[in-house]
Amino acid sequence: MTEGKLIFFGTGEFAAKVFVSMLKRGIRPDALVTAPDKPQGRGMKVMPPPVKELAIKHGIARDKIFQPYDVNHPAFISELKKLDPELIFLTDYGQILGIDILNLPKLGAWNLHPSLLPKYRGAAPLERAIMEGEKETGYSIFMMDEGIDTGKILFQEKIEIGTKTRGELESIIAEKAVNVLPDLYQEFKKGKIKPKPQKGKGSYAKKIEEGELWIDWSKKAFLVMRHIHALSPAPGARTHFDGKYVKLFRAREISDFSGTPGKIIIEGLKLFVMCGEGAVEILEIQPAGKRKMEASEFVKGYHPFWAE
After folding, report:
1. How far apart are CA 205 and CA 136, in angstroms?
2. I need a labelling partner for 206 at 20 to 30 A (CA). Which of 46, 94, 137, 227 fits?
């Protein structure tokens, strides 16, 4: 895509989706910067971040994969200077780039952020937009500055949320954003695109805390459904069915049910939970220690004695 060197900064699952979309589009970074390997899971086995795994799988040379503990350390900046980057493209990375790195690329450092900036700056933009009942979200590609998601906008696109999960929205955004990237690069380089300051009142999407993973059944069914979808596919919304811990991943709002919030009703192979207003039908569930499954399978194989 670029005439000079392109360096991709990314770490998590969303960054992995963007990286895959880049490769499918024929955009191959000259180098990649991601987080260090770290212990994960019950066994605390040291594992690479998702982007590194993909990079190795797709033939990115290991000496072109950088994993600095401090991205702004002078020694690492010296390594970046040797690459002489034309463009940095960053998403879902995990560290804040200092001015010395931002000033390195000839065309600047671009950030793909999954919200319509200035709304939902910060760590959990999609989760917050879904949970708060927004009708639409989208993505912004912007020129990074020293603030947190405050840089000038290069491109934005709206996307309807509807009943999509966060994972589904991430996939849509990754594909759409990468598809516009080559033309955006060419137009910017020709001087046909001028970055524009963000307009409107900004908001901050703070990281999802442990306590927020649990479902509040006293809320309206629409917001309960959205809560479940915001945390899908990971880490999963949490609740207890008769004291048994389960995760929920997909639900459907049902407006013509009413009952005590949290009350469970089973009709045939369908599983419903009453909310503060209306109810939700649970579509995907994972009992503790079991795999994720459709609710109909859960009802059939694990029919709970507390259901009506």
Report:
1. 15
2. 46
